[in-house]
Amino acid sequence: MVQQLKKHGLADPPQNSWRRAVIEKPFGHDLESAQELNRIVHEVFPRDEVFRIDHYLGKETVQNILALRFANTMFEPIWNRSYVDHVQITMAEDIGIGGRAGYYDGIGSARDVIQNHLLQLMALTAIEEPASFHPKALVAEKLKVLSAVKLPEDLGKHTVRGQYAAGWQGGEEVVGYLDEDGINPTSKTDTYAAIKLEINNRRWAGVPFYLRTGKRLGRRVTEIAVVFQRAPYLPFDSYATEELGQNALVIRVQPDEGVTVRFGSKVPGTSFEVRDVTMDFAYGESFTESSPEAYERLILDVLLGDANLFPRHQEVELSWEILDPIEKYWDTHGKPAQYPAGGWGPVEADEMLARDGRSWRRP
Ligand SMILES: NC(=O)C1=CN([C@@H]2O[C@H](COP(=O)(O)OP(=O)(O)OC[C@H]3O[C@@H](n4cnc5c(N)ncnc54)[C@H](OP(=O)(O)O)[C@@H]3O)[C@@H](O)[C@H]2O)C=CC1
Ligand SMILES: O=C1O[C@H](COP(=O)(O)O)[C@@H](O)[C@H](O)[C@H]1O
Prior knowledge:
Domain Glucose-6-phosphate dehydrogenase C-terminal: 66-361
Mean pLDDT: 95
Bound molecules: NADPH dihydro-nicotinamide-adenine-dinucleotide phosphate, the ligand O=C1O[C@H](COP(=O)(O)O)[C@@H](O)[C@H](O)[C@H]1O
Oligomer: single chain
Binding site for NADP(+): 25
Pathway: Carbohydrate degradation; pentose phosphate pathway; D-ribulose 5-phosphate from D-glucose 6-phosphate (oxidative stage): step 1/3
Binding site for substrate: 55, 59, 93, 112, 215
Shape: globular
Organism: Kitasatospora indigofera
Structural class: alpha+beta
Low-confidence stretches: none
């Protein structure tokens, strides 16, 4: 298509004008195809005129990760391996594949959203402070994080893929993935994926980032949970802290956009018991301004030529470098675990965290 645009002169801007290419994700289906696409697109359009859409970057709450981290002083000192135990990034959907069999089958959940949305969320959570919010400065920091990602040595133990089976969703009985219209009944496409990654740098070494996504899960929710280490010593009777969990800061990307902080508090009464409580910031309560839809924001930015919220080709390629070995492993090892629609994914995903002595949050 890009070559046809060039052939018919539609890619050449008239004087004092511009021509821009806006490309939807997924950009390629692996590193090789992404490189080939980048080559073709860059032959026709100058690099600065190519806008790759990852609509998560257009979401208000995703941009707020930068405000939360770099406009405040209280979070940054604890945003590192000395205090953070692990990070969980969840993108759960209650819908199935709907009428998208043609697009989805063969692509699957990891290529559909981990390669782009979830790795972008991870990068923004993990980056160092950029020198400015100029696109080049922000990309430079994201590239450092993506290049420092380390895959688990045993992909069988630290990645899981699943496929939804029949079940109940919102009071209705729904069919399993293999019975959806247009799906090959022997398809091995994943509708659920969970992976463990680490970031090999001074700030994050040894802190696992668990990323999971799935269709036909319990409810539609996207969140980033930064889970902190337990206090090294608790000067209370052991019964007093039985119900104390780990402190956490949760960026609620959607719905009910906002931020929650979970910490322990004394239960009122004569005994000294400590239990988890939460403190909430909700966009709906704090602001009267409405948030533009992600695509409204992104299309406006394309018209203005502002590339800050668009992944550059190096980010796309590095993200495929992270995902390709996992997809290759899945291709040659077994098939997706089944999970009932309406639940929280395959038991194998719970076992994956249990092996690390952790458990998934129920968002
Ligand atoms: N659905 C979503 O929530 C989101 C989707 N996206 C991205 O949007 C893109 C499309 O997804 P979605 O709309 O959900 O998918 P759909 O399958 O619903 O729609 C794809 C559309 O593209 C058309 N199409 C496919 N191949 C060709 C072709 N070779 N030439 C012309 N038309 C073609 C199809 O036509 P026909 O019906 O005739 O086959 C169909 O109308 C994907 O890249 C996806 O990653 C991004 C963010 C969110
Ligand atoms: O990019 C995609 O995102 C949608 C979910 O978007 P959201 O803004 O509703 O979270 C997902 O359904 C789709 O499969 C994927 O292509």
